[in-house]
Amino acid sequence: CGIAVVVEQVTLAAAASEIAKFVERDDLVLGSSLSIAVSGSGEVTSEHKAVSDHMLDVLSRRGPDGNGSTTLKTNGATISLLAATLFMQNPSHAQPVIDNHTNDVLVFNGEIFEYQGMHIEGQSDTNLLFHQITASLSNGQNTQHILQISKLMSALSPIRGPFAFAFWHSLTNTLFFGRDFVGRRSLTLSSSNSQFVISSVASSSTNCCEIPPTGIFSMTFSPATVSITFAPHQNIIHNTPTALPNSNENMSDESVWDREFLAVMTDSMSLQVSSQSVPYPNVTETNVENQCGGVAVLFSGGIDSSVIAALADRCMPPSQALDLFTVHFELPGGAPPRDRALAVRSWKEIVAASPTHRQINLITVDVDEQTIHRQKQRLQQLLTPTTTVMDFNIGCALYFASRGVGRLVCQDGSAGPEYRSSARVVLIGSGADEQCGGYKRHMRLLHEFGPERVQRELAMEMKRIWTRNLGRDDRCVSDSGREPRHPFLDEKVIKFFENVPMEQRLRTTAAEVDEPSGVGDKILIRRLGQYLGLPEASREPKVAIQFGSLISKHVRKCKGEDQYVF
User: Fold this and answer.
1) CA–CA distance, 329 with 551 (Å, rounded to integer)
2) Among 59, 71, 78, which Cα is nearest to 199's?
3) Which among 413, 419, 382 has a CA at the least distance from the CA of 397?
4) In the sheet where 360-367 sits, what is the strand order?
5) Residues 375, 399: contact at Cβ < 8 Å?
6) Following DSSP, what letter does each residue of 488-510 receive, concatenated?
7) pTM value?
8) Nearest C-alpha neighbor of 388 from the set 562, 139, 516
9) N or C: which end of the chain has fewer CB within 10 A?
């Protein structure tokens, strides 16, 4: 799905850079605020309508099943809340959700897999959240900003799943907005002339930033000022129960951690591919031999994507197919990339080890130079505000892979018929390296400075994963009308890794530090792969997607942190 809030308020838009600096501060605490003096007529102008129409058009690629909007006026500002929907549940549950009695409005981009520890079945998670928010804000008559935002936070904290949202509270003339504490769904802030925009995809490449997932923000519109207030997320990770080894068990015993890791990953995957959270295609006797999958995996054939594919196979409904997308950027006269051969080998290993004997489709997505150039303008908008060379390389690979248009691979590894996936959910391995020590620098740090130094490095990488990876990845994958999901970034998986000792993640000797990865790194994930029947994939060294897919060969030689010139 995609959401946007377009606010026409000249002085507010002019203060966009000031607002961006405020929301990006890393020292915000409960009650931190910014007040901006404003003036305006509140009339709906042609520019406001044009920006709103443009945003709906942009978001319709994320949410192709329907869109809607509502516009309101308050204290000199015109505010439009927009949503484009990708239906995962009941098609009748359209957005925005509006209470006709109170004029409260919600736009929501996310999935609530569990709420207060209970599975969500047979109801719209958007409608559930709307009810919880309105109930929390109507509890009492105190309209102080800090109390209102704290009440709203109490409605959001029980969510297990990714989300970004905006909620208009009519009684207090307040707009609330924010993301889940990991940042799995994109939410940007940008401005253009007199328009101030909060949206899944940036409305402009200038005056733009990603809204941090550190907490929830509110904007209260008064006749002469707009007050922005912040409240940090409640400590969701530490309040999330998960299975951990019993205190009487040997904490150095590999089998103890292997068992618990399998349990928590199976629980995560089961929620993300269940029939309640995925609109699977109907399977009949006539199409059972040539099914399209309801779930896909971004698949390199490495250990992370192979484990995800094998777990999805075990957790999906038995009659459904599974699609694996592997991408290759063609070079004139060049040989197929390493990732292509690896993907074929690992796919065959997954099929051979499958206990379900389901249909597992490997789809090769081949992209030539001309196709890249035709999509550069689109890619620029999706990448904004992350526009380094590395962002372009990774975003480009994700963008084309997630389209799921290519050729099926035959059992002998040759190219088969053309194929277009119908999957609406794409599973991604984000978070595996940051939590289990998947980068070469982690092994060097362990060898040179010890486990405490690596622990600090992993914590820092998880803290910044939203700005380095997740916003960009969400925008690039969702543009294909598919929803990215991250099994390694489930709340309970994150909680589990917080308790895993370093020797269960990384081990190294002086001789191994300069060897290719594949030995000593991501130990838990590699042992899980072996348990799932993937011994070959479990020994594969890590190769970043920009190198394995060859997209980096299409970009002039430069440093990854350099700005990409479109």
Assistant:
1) 6
2) 59
3) 382
4) 415-420, 405-409, 360-367, 321-329, 293-298, 425-427, 483-485
5) yes
6) GGSHHHHHHHHTS-GGGT----T
7) 0.92
8) 562
9) C
By percentage, how much of the chain surpasses pLDDT 70?
A: 85
Reduced to 3 states (helix: H, G, I; strand: E, B; else coil), residue 187 is coil
DSSP class of residue 237 equals G
Torsional sign, CA 566, 400, 265, 530: negative
Q: Is the dihedral of CA 258, 262, 264, 265 positive or negative?
A: positive
* CB-count burial class (<10 Å; 0-12, 13-18, 19+) for 288: exposed
Q: At 326, is the secondary structure helix, strand, or coil? A: strand
Lowest mean pLDDT among 32-41, 187-196, 205-214, 464-473: 32-41
What residue has token string 């997209």? 551
Q: What is the pLDDT of residues 523-559, one digit of tens each?
A: 999 999 999 999 999 998 877 776 667 676 766 656 5
Check if the beta carbon of residue 204 is closer than 8 Å to that of residue 50.
no
pLDDT of residue 337: 62
Q: Are 208 and 196 in contact (CB under 8 A)?
A: no
Q: Is the pLDDT of residue 239 over 50?
A: no
